[in-house]
């Protein structure tokens, strides 16, 4: 039985409220407020600067993925990237980021199907680089004897990652799974209209593996994006007095990111805070400091991106209306 959207939202809201109530019952929120109130502005400023770098890197990656199919300017790619950010923030699994596909289609003359394929490629590159960072962090902690777990776990993780990469770069496997992926990500209202666009979708995914330079650049940018995110959270941690070694951030943040995008709570609230609380205890960080870092990360990332994204979306919508009005007036003349 498939859950309706309304029931799913109610369940997510219930989970969020239960988790937040549990946090309120076990934490000293006056202490958390005090930690946030004493944040160092130098490190906050350094963290906020990484937001601009993230936007530029995402725009460059989008440009590299579009390159085999058409031309696009860095300015247009920045606008397209901004439009997807607020929708990604408020939707489970950040799938709302696909809202930018319509802007991508309009600004580049690519079809919706091609835009969708490029959007999915971005997500895949992010996910693969996330897994690699997580594996690297676990291996580093294990070999430095800071993490006590059976060596067989690291072998299993390495094997899983290798198998995933082999399958990802296998054209036959990719082709067989395209139909499943296409059906999963295309909104149900659009499926009938986009049915004929599947060949275009498949062509873009296949072309990505033929264009080695474009794919290599996109992969490189995906790694830089994760490194930039890790640095941002590390700077935010320093701003509130958390001095855990950077290696812990390489290990823990990718795992927290995976937990945060699970579609079981509203905007990741509750699940994100518990993930920070539990995982950063490995690095000796107090519960209040860990939750303060979680809240500060959300405030310093999601809010600025959402504000700038909504401004870009409204401006683009206004521009579209103006252009449509001019077109209608021209046709009347």
Summarize the structure in words.
There is one protein chain. With 333 residues, this protein is mostly helical. It has one domain (30-317). It has 14 helices and no strands.
Helix tally equals 14
Fraction of residues in helix: over 70%
How far apart are the termini?
55 Å
Could you tell me the mean pLDDT?
Answer: 76
Estimate what percentage of residues fall within beta strands: under 5%
Decide which structural class fits the backbone. mainly alpha
Q: From the alpha carbons, calculate the radius of gyration and give it in angstroms.
A: 21 Å
Task: Please identify the oligomeric state.
Answer: single chain
Question: What letter string, H or E per element, gives the SSE order?
Answer: HHHHHHHHHHHHHH
Count the domains: 1
Main pleated sheet: none
Please give the number of β-strands: 0
What is the molecular shape? globular
List keywords for this structure.
333 residues; mainly alpha; 14 helices; transmembrane; Flippase-like domain-containing protein
Task: Compose a concise summary of this entry.
The protein has 333 residues and is mainly alpha-helical. 80% of the residues lie in helices and 0% in strands.
Q: How does the SSE layout of this entry go?
A:
Blueprint: H1 5-26, H2 29-37, H3 41-66, H4 74-90, H5 100-108, H6 112-143, H7 151-168, H8 171-185, H9 188-194, H10 198-210, H11 212-239, H12 246-260, H13 271-279, H14 287-332
